[in-house]
Structures are given as C-alpha cells and as structure tokens.
Amino acid sequence: MKIAVTGSTGQLGRLVVELLKERVGAQQVIALARTPEKAASMGVEVRAFDYNQPEGLLSGLVGVDRLLLISSSEIGQRAAQHARLIEAAKNAGVGMIVYTSLLHADTSSLNLAGEHLATEELLKQSGIAYTILRNGWYTENYTGSVKGALAAGAFVGSAGTGKISSATRADFAEAAAVAVSVDSHVDHTYELAGDESYTLEDLATEVSRQSGKNIPYQNLPQADYAGILEKVGVPAPFAAAIASWDTCAAHGDLFDDSRQLSRLIGRPTTPLSEAVKAAL
Fold first, then answer.
1. What is the pLDDT of residues 215-231, one digit of tens each?
2. What distances in angstroms separate CA 57 from CA 27, 62, 266, one per listed residue?
3. Contacts for 45 with CB less than 8 Å, ≥ 6 apart
4. Domains of the chain, residue spans
C-alpha cells in the first residue's frame, strides 16, 4: 500500500511522514514536494509535485493507493489547486484521499472556510473514497508568540474571552497518519480539536507561571492588533487576516469539546502547559 503525502516538507507534513514510516514502513511512503531536494533526507521516495504545474500531478500520483492532501498554504488559490489535484488523483486511480480541512468549516466565520468547503465538496463528488479531517487551530499559532510576549512584557490579541480548543501539530499529524493508514475512517468527517480549551488570558497566565514574569493579556480592537503585527514585520494583508481570526475566536469559531481528536489518536491531546514549556 503506497501512501503519498502532499506538503511533505512543511511543518505538519514532515511529522506525518515520520509517523507513517513507523506505521507502514518507509518503503510504502512517498513524499510529494514542490522542492524535492528539501525532502531528500527524509528516507522515503520523493517525487516532484507542484499544484501550479498540472502536467506533473498525474505522474506524481502514479501507483499511489492513498493520498494525504495537506491543504495548500496559498490562501486564495487553494480551491483551484486542490481541484487540479483531485482530478489528477481520479485519473491516476488513487483509491482514497484524506484531506486536512478546517474546524466546523460549514459554520465557521473564518475567511479560510470557503476554500476548505469547496474542496470537501469536490472530494465528495469525485467518487474517490475520502476522509475529511477538520483541523482546529495549532497551539503553535499562539505559543509562537511567547518569546515576543516576554520581550514586550505583554501578550496581545483580539480573541477576548473566546475559548480556543487548539492542539499541537504533533497531535494533528498523528491523526492524519492514523486516518490515512486505517480502513475504518473512510467516508468520515472528523471535527478535530484539543481536549483542553483556554482563553488568551489563560495562555498569558500559563506563560507567566512558567517564566516567572508577569505577562498580562491585553485585548485589543482588531484594527489595533493588526497594526501591531505590521509594526513587527508581518505583511499588511496577513496581519489583517491574523487579527480577523482572533476576532473569530472571540465568537467561538475555534472552540470544540467533542474530543474526536483524542479518540482518533487513542490518547489525550498535548496539554497547553507542555506546549508553553516547549515554546519557552
């Protein structure tokens, strides 16, 4: 059974490839990469694979039984890129696709939801067996700001008192490896989120506890938060997007208490305290 992974050189993809090597053996894993040399040291077969070069997608999928489609990182181009890939997968005879979508994509107010829903619909219409993993937020999306918060003396955002049910990349990677290698998950849609929910004030409290410094959380209007992100070098469009996602979190879009992720991976998700410790 040959399992291919798109986005294999990304932070999530690398973790999935390593887990699949353990689960099914390195000889059964194919790393699909836009820049193949970046995957050369992964210890698996590597194939060039670029969403924007349709002529190479079919050849990249020849002989693939199952495909993990890690959603493209190019916001605004995802739906078209995924459509080309799914068509190539049909023509190549791929038997199953696992797709990393967005938590509650059908009700979420995040501006990311539309492209994920479009991809989900394409999968359902393709005739290929599928599993949809609606991934919640990575804990690293927030703990990545810990060092900056320590330097600034405060943690800032626009999420208010919204509860965030995040999980680490390692948690989501394990779910993907399980879903693509086990038959029983075919034609299922999972809402994946961490067991533990927290506010950004809770996060600031945990950072303060572990660092020994007083790091309060300052909630800001969305535009003000975007402005701060720009000042530290985040491009304006991306800064605006990040701030908008925080506002969505304030409205509950990043909360889920179904614990489907921990059931899928057979263990509790990584606690916030461990993620903060790793960030520090």
1. 999 999 999 999 999 99
2. 21, 9, 34
3. 27, 29, 30, 31
4. 3-135, 139-166+192-256+270-280
Overall CATH class of domain 3-135: alpha beta
Helices (H), 190-235: 200-211, 222-231
Q: What is the pLDDT of residue 10?
A: 95
160-197 as b/e: b if 16+ CB within 10 A: bebbbbbbbbbbbbbbbbbbbbeeebeeebbbbbbbbb
Query: What is the fold, at CATH topology level, of the domain defined by 139-166+192-256+270-280?
Result: UDP-galactose 4-epimerase; domain 1 (3.90.25)
Which tokens sit at 188? 């299922």
Q: How far apart are CA 254 and CA 209, in angstroms?
A: 24
Joined together, the tokens standing for residue 151 give 């330097």
Q: Are strands 66-69 and 96-102 parallel, antiparallel or unpaired?
A: parallel
Tell me what pLDDT residue 55 has: 82
For residue 12, report the phi and psi dihedrals to the nearest 5 degrees: -75, -45
Walk along the chain (280 residues) in steps of 10 and give the mean pLDDT of each run. Answer: 96 98 98 94 96 89 97 90 96 97 97 96 96 98 93 95 98 98 92 98 97 97 96 93 96 97 98 96
Backbone angles phi, psi at 102, to 5 degrees: -120, 140
pTM for the whole thing? Answer: 0.96
Q: What is the pLDDT of residue 96?
A: 97
- Number of residues in the chain: 280
Q: List Cα–Cα distances, 199 to 37, 48, 136, in angstroms.
A: 40, 41, 15
Q: Contact at 8 Å (CB) between 9 and 31?
A: yes
